[in-house]
Specification:
- The protein has 7 helices and 6 strands; from the N terminus they run E-E-H-H-E-E-E-H-H-H-E-H-H.
- By secondary structure, it is of the alpha+beta class.
- A hairpin with a 2-residue loop joins strand 4 and strand 5.
- Helix 3 runs antiparallel to helix 4.
- The N and C termini lie far apart (93 Å).
Length: 210
């Protein structure tokens, strides 16, 4: 699904034809819409959300969110590469119209491109090739993973995740600086002790000659 970040308005979507997923399609569609509603400008621009046997992956670019649901066994690198491909094409076709529409699924015809892209990225050869492009794709291990219950049931805003990540980063940086300061002070104490020892030795030698 593709949605506008400002208000969560769905812009385009593609129906999953997986038989197993079809039994719970309404549930996952509802979860996707709830995720869109909880997004804000402060939300992580890339995130993976654990939803039982599946993962929601999303990216946010130019105030538009691109979200896909995959099995947990599906390579994350390929999933995010798929989303980036959708983003490039969607932005080229409709980027200047996103802020002007007021009805849901105003660009539903984009499903034609989504279906073609899904076939390409589901191809085993393509998946192997994309999996090898480690230097050209972002390190997905650094992408935040959050449980669907934390996002939806307990009402945790996705923007809070970004705040927590920032706090952890700041704490880590403070710890690094404090450790550096302590190491510097320890070095100065060692130098001072050495200098004092040399002075005492010189005084001892000086007065021992008289």
């Amino acid at each position: 699904m593709i949605a506008r970040l400002a208000d969560g308005l769905p812009l385009a979507a593609s129906v999953q034809d997986d038989e197993e997923l079809g039994k719970n399609l309404i549930q996952y569609q509802t979860q996707a819409k709830q995720i869109f509603k909880r997004l804000s400008p402060g939300s992580p621009n890339r995130c993976t959300i654990d939803s039982g046997p599946y993962y929601f992956h999303y990216i946010i670019i130019n105030d538009v969110c691109y979200l896909v649901l995959t099995e947990k066994s599906f390579p994350k690198r390929v999933a995010f590469s798929f989303l980036e491909d959708l983003q490039n094409e969607f932005d080229m076709q409709y980027g200047n119209k996103v802020s002007t529409v007021g009805r849901p699924y105003a660009f539903i015809e984009f499903d034609n491109y989504i279906q073609k892209a899904k076939k390409t990225f589901n191809d085993s050869r393509t998946r192997r090739q994309l999996g090898q492009l480690n230097n050209e794709l972002q390190d997905v291990q650094r992408i935040m993973v959050q449980n669907i219950d934390d996002v939806l049931v307990r009402g945790a805003a996705l923007s809070d995740l970004q705040d927590k990540a920032g706090m952890l980063s700041a704490a880590s940086e403070k710890y690094r600086k404090d450790a550096k300061t302590l190491n510097t002070k320890a070095s100065m104490v060692k130098i001072g002790a050495g200098v004092l020892l040399v002075v005492i030795l010189m005084l001892y030698l000086k007065f021992s000659w008289f």
